[in-house]
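can u pls check wat happens w/ adenosine-5'-diphosphate
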Amino acid sequence: MQSMLARGAGAHGMGEFELIRRYFDRHSAAHEGVVLGIGDDCALLAPRAGYELAISTDMLVAGRHFFADVDAATLGWKALAVNLSDLAAMGALPRAFTLALSLPEAVPEWLETFSRGLFECAFQFECPLIGGDTTRGPLNLCITIFGEVPSGVAIRRSGAQAGDDLWVSGQLGEAALGLRLRRGDAGLEPLDALATRHAINALELPMPRVALGLALRGVATAMLDVSDGLLGDLEHVLAASALPGARIHAAALPLSAGLLTQPEAVRLQCALAGGDDYELCFTAPASQRARIGDIAARSGTPLSLIGTVGLASGPAGIQVLDTGGQVLPGFERGQFKGYDHFGNA
Ligand code: ADP
Ligand code: MG
């Protein structure tokens, strides 16, 4: 499409094609399965026989998903990381991605920094950039990612069985704590520099659980990545799996040392309803516990057993229990929706 970015040289002496060549064309065709990368009307991918393509898109809008003044390198990392997290959540192996970029201005320093963060993530997860679109407009990035998974093996949200264990990777609520720190929210206990950095990193540099997602093929019955808050996301699994409810033990929630120093209300809000965790939440029968322990050890990812799904007794919905087994009030169904862009804020 004819772009609003100057086709010739713009204010910074750089047109659209020069911009793409300088910052985004990194020999993607050297990757296995990439028949043709950047430069033609389409990229060409060669799917492997016996595999399905897993495709996901995530859009990041300035002022809505990130602060407009966020460091461009962390933005580049996160834009790709959140897409890789969606592949991880299906047990899919990353193959390639495309980038649609809308920029107010082609500023070389910004593009240099952004592409450094983006390609750091791309190289680490061996996921080449094979195409995209570049246009002038409000800062907005959209990545579409392509992965592959053996036919019939993808881990969907719909496979949870009544009585399955409920597991989560890593730590919950850390990115939400980072967001509160970034915004300078009141009501937080002071944190030392290390704990502050840990929380901000969780927010800005999420680590997609790709290896873990692959290892959970054939083990997890249902899985998703926690992007909008555990309770809201778990509701999706329950609905897709046609299960009436779930029980979560608050004491089993994996929290960082920093979050543990916070008032209980902050702790629970962040862990249960905070967004941007990009941890994997999955269900599995109790018979898989030993194997899941092995997977945690081999992948170097802590995995926590936090509850059970599919309980027919008691009220429908998710119950959060304290150490004494009492239901914590305030977390009933409907009270803790995941983040909804078109819901009532
Ligand atoms: P078209 O006009 O056919 O849409 P473009 O002129 O927009 O093609 O893009 C030229 C080539 O550069 C295409 O291969 C496209 O995929 C690639 N491309 C454009 N923008 C980006 C970007 N931000 N990152 C990676 N590749 C890009
Ligand atoms: Mg185009």
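The two ends are 36 Å apart (CA to CA).
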